[in-house]
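Instructor's aside before we start: the two examples that follow are unrelated to each other. I chose them only because their records fit on one page, so don't look for a connection. First example below.
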Amino acid sequence: MNFDQLLEEFNSRNPYTNAIGIEMTEICFDYAAGKVDYSDKVINRNLHVHGGVYVSLADTVAGAAAHSTGAHYVTQSCSFQFYKATDKGTLFCTARVNHRGRKTCVIAAKLTHEDGTLAGEGLFSFYKISDETNPLHQCMDKPKFR
């Protein structure tokens, strides 16, 4: 499996993220990016993007970064900080692996508004449930943590 196939799999095979409009935009070795657009599907009663959507976006993007080696992981734990509400536009997320061990992977995720304002950030721990059957190759140029 290559990065394009993994990206397609993340965008097509997750009913929950599809229902709320999360879209993965990039997957590279130890890195991933995604977004969700402001819509009636993701807002709370105050007309801001629901906090659960922030965490869902971060968890999904961090999970894609974990899976970038071809192995399968599940979320083990997370800690998330909310900084700014989102009441329009698109919420973006980038995630980069901080540590990849034999069975666990720790990933930092950052959520930003269209203007680059930091909206939230989290630290996610993933547990490997299967070995790498189709390791993916590193990108020539790793994207910077946005």
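Example two begins here.
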Amino acid sequence: MDSNGFFSLSTGADYTMAAVSKARAIVLEVNPNVPFAYGDCHVHISQVSALVESNQPVRSIPLGEIGEVERTIGGYVADLINDGDTLQIGFGGIPDAVVTQLTHKHDLGIHTEMIGDGIITLLQSGAITCNKKNFNRGKMIATFATGHRSALQGDGSQPDAGNASGRLRQRSGHCRAE
């Protein structure tokens, strides 16, 4: 809970806010290991019927193996991506192979369903600024985040989750949570 009494639905607020708005009772699991996300994904303590405390580690999904075939295909795709392009990145060997070959790019934008380790790597490299996007300039759009535990920890780049309206703003060279 933040200092204003709000809980974040964190990395998976895809449809949850719609359910919260219709619910007769709201039961939240509170876990200090889950990152606080920003955007339209907050529930005020006054709306909550019950809290369940947990200290379970965040489920993490590490990058898969990138073999020679994935690396080759990823290279062909990466060659098609220009500085300033907006990307939608999927999950798996080929998308992972693509993003590993984009860290030298500039001003990339993200409008995607999922933020994973590859996108976090691009954020950390400075390749993503979202400054050239035609729609929601300066904001990264995402529905949820998953990946290795280190990708989901507090470097300020947690997804601004909420029904494909995750908004992250530019701060210190990265798209960062508002």
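The helical segments are 16-22, 68-80, 93-99, 117-125.
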